[in-house]
């Protein structure tokens, strides 16, 4: 049989490919493979044959294939047989890695096989080939990478790992550095445990090798051009990272344990604070070769993986704003728990974002503190996958499973990971196999649920002692060095504790308003209702309106799109601007002023309701045309259709806005109801970050809202839920009724000298309502109006005032105009929160003869603004007489159009009875 038939029968597509390459160009394969294919010169015991024609294939020839299969088997499955678990026996997997699995035996161990060329040995004994792949793939590091679909990446990883067998070779000085970092991590935890007995600290004990790992990531990253790392992690080990990686002063951390509070710079700002293991920090560190690296640790709530998209958004914002699109200058590091990375859905969402144009950050370094227990849940009950890191396969990212007790292997793995990230700009995962010395917190008893595991952990030495023994045994250091290093650091911690006891109040060390936030300030009560100038000169407005409504004549657009833009151009000519034009003009004017505008969400380029059309696709191609790109160069306008995610995308945009307050950053829900998929971001960041962490944010959430008979999931943006989160002027809620007021509202976000999240309930049916239009003077001569009074009713004869917000105004207006009711006034509250109390008082005073002041809403009585207004306005000068609304319900809206119409008519009729 010929060579190719033989190779195919041997079931080795890999060798088949090599043979095809050899036939095309013999020099395209390694010399050893050339020799292999040149007439099957198989070495010992091989029967040579002529280069062409049939050959007699010896047993040795078949075993060459078996050896190759063994090499590929180790690369594919070697990670299943590693020595990576410091405290448990690994699960058994079948088939195993015995020689017999690959059709080999002990009798073959001293036979020379040409297959050694595959691992860089050339013709070599099976014993040596097997030793190399055993050392590389089955010791302290297990590598998963063969599912990657790019052969170059696979070869890069194989070559790097097999070249030194995943066996790091460090100098004595490098080993001492690793030891000192481990010592700091271990001693810091034991010091806290001794001095602050019983206090929660969510210690790193058992996973202290994280600290030398982070140190090495910073050093290696700096050598490869990284200037900044953005870190996100939950509570496990956070204090250790703050102290020993970020450089947060030990005395400050001890002061927080002592219960010292941060000095109240202004009682009006109502800073509430948070527990110490949720706090963020930033610092600058200097590497061994003198490079300055900026480190940031994002604040994080107890919702373990919520910080992931925040970190990615901050990183992307800095890539765009600070590093001119160069993602090699900054890298995100996400530190996960094993149960969290396997169990939290936002991890999957963030992973799916990692390569998308609007969200990529050049690759994230993921480190899993895999302590094998989630609170009390055993790992077998925490996931269905083999590994907690199986999510990595979604993005074809390599995973390194590392024994946390082997500090040198940990450092080696993270260095390889950083190098891979910088070269290929993709995610990489380090699964740090370790254990948790105590329970979920230090007061917890882990033996209640894991008695056998914790018997093993009790006897197990900490990673520092394990490494110290190794270094002493190999004579890199002696026992006195170990003791001296430990004593020196303990003494220093004691000094810092003594200083902490003398501190009365803590000073904020990392103020908010510096760097990109310089020139802005925290908002006080007086700032909230101070009118700011959002008007635009008419000449400039008209010039920009012309730019964004003119399509190039050399491109072929869909007929309906051309007609749409003709209609928009007519709006300029006829001085009648609809909602879409009001919105787009807000973006155009901000871009013209040098600001950045970023919008993302599901289908935002066109708009769910086909009103925006910010990005146009040409009729005969996939080419895109962006009218707003004509404004001021266009590079500051970014609008991305997002993946089908609310949680991760809203978190990403919050992070983006956090890093760049000079960008108008917008997330739009497909329907207002859908934001509840991101409720955790709203609760933990949007509404509370300023109170917990003194972190302002100007993110805009657009939530299409309005009762139009479209059913329970396409009606309500849940105004009531946002209002119940409102306090201390923490965010702005608006429900505008005119394009111009919306224009001013969006512009106000960047014109003000402070930032507040804006939740705006945007219209659906009003997008094309003939009365929902504004004139040029509304944009050029008026600013944002929190309240819009009635201009039709006669104040001297008005007996009833109807207060409302949003779409229902036009239903009420239609009834008022049809019946010419000048005795009933309709007042629109455009800014729901902070409530414009002084303006409402002035309106009440204007209608002196009115005896009824009703709140009218189309939402159910237990929803919409009423529950909040009923509570906060009770017993005040602006309390409402009563409410007119739909009846209470557990569902936001009916799904039956006839019922919806009847309900709506009942509200309108009752308002005018």
Automatic annotation (TrEMBL):
Entry superkingdom: Bacteria
Entry keyword annotation includes Cell wall biogenesis/degradation: no
Keywords: Oxidoreductase, Thiamine pyrophosphate
Signal peptide segment: none
The enzyme's E.C. designation: 1.2.4.2
Molecular-function GO term, any one: oxoglutarate dehydrogenase (succinyl-transferring) activity
Domain Transketolase-like pyrimidine-binding: 577-769
UniProt key word Oxidoreductase: yes
GO cellular component: cytosol; oxoglutarate dehydrogenase complex
Cofactor(s) for this UniProt protein: thiamine diphosphate
InterPro entries: 2-oxogl_dehyd_N, 2oxoglutarate_DH_E1, DH_E1, KGD_C_sf, ODO-1/KGD_C, THDP-binding, Transketolase-like_Pyr-bd
Gene3D superfamilies, sorted: 3.40.50.12470, 3.40.50.970, Multifunctional 2-oxoglutarate metabolism enzyme, C-terminal domain, TPP helical domain
GO biological process, one term: tricarboxylic acid cycle
Function: E1 component of the 2-oxoglutarate dehydrogenase (OGDH) complex which catalyzes the decarboxylation of 2-oxoglutarate, the first step in the conversion of 2-oxoglutarate to succinyl-CoA and CO(2).
NCBIfam families in the cross-refs: 2oxo_dh_E1, PRK09404.1, PRK12270.1
PANTHER family: 2-OXOADIPATE DEHYDROGENASE COMPLEX COMPONENT E1, 2-OXOGLUTARATE DEHYDROGENASE
Entry similarity comment: Belongs to the alpha-ketoglutarate dehydrogenase family.
Protein name (database record): oxoglutarate dehydrogenase (succinyl-transferring)
